[in-house]
Structures are given as C-alpha cells and as structure tokens.
Amino acid sequence: MASETMAEVGPETLAAELVAKGALTTDWLPAFRTVPRDRFVPDAIWPGRAGMNRQDDRVLRSEHPELWWKAVYTDAPITTQWDDGAYGGPGRGRTPSSSSSMPTMVFSMLDALSVEPGNRVLEIGTGTGWSAALMCHRLGDQNVVSVELDATLAAEARSRLFAADFAPEIVVGDGAVGYGKRSPYDRIIATASVGHVPSQWIGQAHPGAIIVTPWGPVYGGEAVARLAIDEVGVARGHFVGSSAFMRLRQRRKSLPPSGRFLDQSKWPLGANRTKTPLSPDDVGDWICMFAIGVQVPDLFCRVTWGEEGSYRLWLFDTGVTSWASADYVVGGEEFEIAEAGPRRLWQELEGAYWWWHQQGRPGFERFGLTTRGGPTYKVWLDDPANPVPVGRSSW
C-alpha cells in the first residue's frame, strides 16, 4: 500500500472527522481507537457513498488494498453482502443484504443508546461484528448479546470478534423475536429497520430500558427512534435523525406487483384525469416521504423513467383497490394526474403533504413514536398528545 494513502486516510483521520461532526463523543473515542473498523470488514466490499443508497463496484483487498483501506476509513457505508449471499461479484447484485454502516450512523446510534456501566445490551443484526466489538469494549463481553439471522455472517463475525479478543454471545436466529434466554435487557439496539417495533423487544426489556432502532413507514422515509420503556410496557420517544437501513430480513416489505392494479401499457384506462401545480419532484425528499407515509400507512410508490429527466410516479395501496399516476416534466408548471379506484390516492398524498407543509415542514427530530409493540403504534409531532393525523378523514 502506498505510504501516502496510509497517511491521508486511517483511524485517526476518521476519528477527527467524526469528532468534528459531533458523532463520536469522548466516551466512545477509546472504543473507536481500540477496535479499528478494518478488523471487521471482509476482503470483498462494495463501497458506498454518504447519504446515498448507491454502491460502487466490488473492491477486493487482495487486488486493490489502497482502495479497500480508503473505503474502510471513509465516513460512508460499505455493502458486504448481496442477495442474502447468493451473489458475490464482480459488479453488483440485485439487493444489498448486509453492510458495515456509515461510522457517523454507528456512533450516533451508540450515543443515543446512553449505555451505563453494567448494562446488558441486546443487538439485533450482528453484521460484520464491529458494533458488537465496540460495545464489548465499553461494557464487557458478558453484557453483549447479538442476534444474526444469517448463519454465515454470524460465523464470520464470531471469528473476527475472537481474533480481536472479544467473546460476546452471538445467536443465530430471527432478530424480530429477540433472545429471551438472556433477558431482561437494559438496552436494545437494531442495525436493521422495522415498520413496527416487535413486541418481543419490549417484553424482553427492563422498565426504563431504551430501544434504539431505525423505523419507517411503507411509503418511504426512515429515521432512528429512541424509545424509553415505562412501567406498563409502553415504549415512547423522539426520532433522533434520518436513516436508511436495510429492513430486518424477516420483516422485509412484500408489496403487490404493479400488474395487479393495471396494464401500464393501456394507461390511463378511463381513469379520472386532473392537473396539479404540486410537482411530483416536491414530494420526493426523505422527510417528506416519511410525513406522507405515516399519514397514509398503506400507500406505496414506484417510478417509471422517461426521457430528458421526465418520469411517471405511480401510487398504489397495499389493499390493491386503487392506483394513481403523476407525470413529471422538467420545467413544468402543472402536472398530469390520473386516478382510478374507490380512493383518490394523489389527493390523499397531496393532503398529507400540505399538512406537513402547514406544520412548518418539520424535520425528523420533531416527530416521535409511541408503541406497545406489534403493528399498533402512534406517530406524533413534538408531543405524544399531538398525534399525526392518519386516514383521509383527517384532512
């Protein structure tokens, strides 16, 4: 490896960057320095880009050590597995299925976990094992339990942890059901996103325990929730920032194909036709999608790309009753809308968008979540007494 590459990028330069961002706090800095990321990244990686769900082509440490090292000590996510291990490159697979998360996200979530000496932590999603190692350094091996569904990933992580002189309990199983044998836990942290908080996590935690997990509605948008569990088993708390994690493998979205709604080649099939001044481009930001998704929880979308930046945004409901389309053209002032079925999905989306706009376009940190676990939950704005409206009748 070129000496200048080692000097320009490495643990200390990344540490300085994370400290400057406020992600790496003084209480986690010793763990960062003792548990280098490079010991927990496999030889074959697909470097990512900060703030984007996009991966570069495969990099092999054996062939390009300087590129591998630079990727490891860049504040960006790294995809480490595609298609549940079915694809190994070169190039990219269809769907990323495991990663080494962006270091800013790793340490921001660990900070939100607010661990204290003696806390027992349940981690959902072992992945490469880096987060487990960081927590072992801080809390001791005996206080860290990590659950990983993929037996191969679990074995590889266990080997890396052993080589680094750490020995937490690594369990092969479905993270959505937790791990009751070592409960109750003081802290639970998930490295994969969910659409609802599993009731088992709450049931396996002490009153006063904290859960930190990425959470997002079906439509899109996602943020990290920091939830405190009260004496009667209610988990409640604010979101602490945007995120974009892979879904928990056993809880991935399973959405009906577009063909169940209509033959797109025969669009618009007598649909109701209108125009709107609201651009489809104005409703595509991550926070905007989140605000829409929590108000219309059964809505999902797809996109068909056209020429010169144009596209058609498709809206569907999970009950397969209705569909809508919105045509975006660069520079347009009005946009063609088509809606069919008993619901007017574009109107529902517009209503959700304007509610968010009228609240001052709040960011993720103003939203919060209350749940007892399972599919029943409440998203609120600023205060639990101020629930976000859900359903068409709310607008």
Automatic annotation (TrEMBL):
Entry's localization field: Cytoplasm
Matches recorded under CDD domains: AdoMet_MTases (cd02440)
Keywords (A to Z) from UniProt: Cytoplasm, Methyltransferase, S-adenosyl-L-methionine, Transferase
E.C. code: 2.1.1.77
GO molecular function: protein-L-isoaspartate (D-aspartate) O-methyltransferase activity
An annotated GO BP: methylation
One protein family per Pfam: PCMT
Alphabetical list of PROSITE patterns matching this protein: PCMT (PS01279)
Keyword rRNA processing on entry: no
Gene Ontology annotations for the cellular component aspect, listed alphabetically: cytoplasm
Keyword S-adenosyl-L-methionine applies: yes
Family: Belongs to the methyltransferase superfamily. L-isoaspartyl/D-aspartyl protein methyltransferase family.
Protein name: Protein-L-isoaspartate O-methyltransferase
